[in-house]
Amino acid sequence: MESGKTKKRILVIEDNIGVQNLYRDILKKHSYEAEILDSVSRAIDALKKTNFDLVILDLQLSGEDGLMFLDSLKSFETAVPPVIVCTGMASIENAVDAMKKGASDFITKPFSVDALISTIERNISINELTRKISEIKMIRSILELNRIIISITDIEDLCTGVVDLVYNLVKPDIALLYFRDDDTGRFFLRRTKGSASDFTPPVVISLSETGSFYRKNSDIVHRIDEKSFEVKLFGRKDIIGILRFYSTEKFDDRELNFLSVFGTQMGIALENAKLLQQLQESYISAIRSLVNSLEAKDAYTKNHSEQVAYYAVAIGKVLGLDHKSLESLRNAAYLHDIGKLGIKDEIILKKTSLSEEELEIIKKHPLITKEILQPLKMRREEIEACLYHHERVNGKGYPEGLSGEKIPLFAKILAVADALSAMISERPYRKKMEIEDAIEELKRNAGQQFDENIVEALIHFVENSRQK
Ligand SMILES: [Fe+2]
Predict the structure, then answer these.
(1) Å from CA of 285 to ligand 1 middle
(2) Could you tell me where the DSSP H helices lie in 75-232?
């Protein structure tokens, strides 16, 4: 042993006084600190009170089966040191049993001093190395969490990122993230990762089930029972979420300590994302009411955006878009013509046909929409959908004359929904069309003005809703 280092502590379970003295001498000589006890129950008590780096267990204790010690270790909540079992040559199968029950290594009696010391050193080093590796993994996870917190502002992405990260770190059977509903104060399941055959996660949990809460580090991680624990996610004032873990394997105490640091960071990050989302939603709803007031000025375009949103989302559903995409599509549909705010009413509200010059001015509205929406940090695909909703698949649209696949999907959907809404609404210069006629018109222009697949999807939706 090198001098100057903290002495390693070894717990020896041995009831033969002669062998006890032998251990005492050898371990002292090799600078180990030894505690020698003669029964399993005393050893378990000592292990609960003190940290040991290694345990040496004699399997032939008088009146006691040494294997009981290994069984008792299974109920420990925290990590246990490696155990070397010591047995006579005649009962080598006991050593095999012990290894199956979790012992790290074995030595046979009578042992040489060299064999004992090299076995001790090997097991302590392996254990330390394993701990170091898991610490490095945890430090990397904390850095990763910081990266996620800084880079993600979308709450759904943040939930996924946080659950993935802690799942990979703690490796439970199942990880669950609950979010507090501000109206009821109850916690609703937002994300799960992993699965467990003997455990069905509750969809809603309430505060009373999760114990009392105090804003102390030690209270962030809370053990529910042997198989599960939870991490409370604190916002600035209150608990905003709960992470629960379920595992048939034992959780490591260092992992739980790291999770208490995580709990605070994750809580603040999720709260920030939630606040940002609320802020964006209120911006969007303010703009929507602006759109409504704009449309209300003109009896002919009243509820146009509402109708475009309805058909765009319907098309999106037929195409199998996910929830987030449908949300983006709805936002874009509401806001696609907001740029008309920047064009004079006398052109927008003109009841007769427009001059070339006036048409050129009208064609600027997608660019003006982009200018209005860009500072709002809306999703890129939402802004692009608005910017390109007048592009045509044959490249003859505006503002950029994009064609075919170069036109973003959401923009192509808006183009069809926008055209349909215009056709089935009354206009100063023509009567409103029946939906069947409008669809015929869209079909005629599919492949030229509109994307054929999108027109198909709209037809699918209209036919399906007719059958209902
Ligand atoms: Fe438009």
Answers:
(1) 19
(2) 92-100, 113-151, 155-170
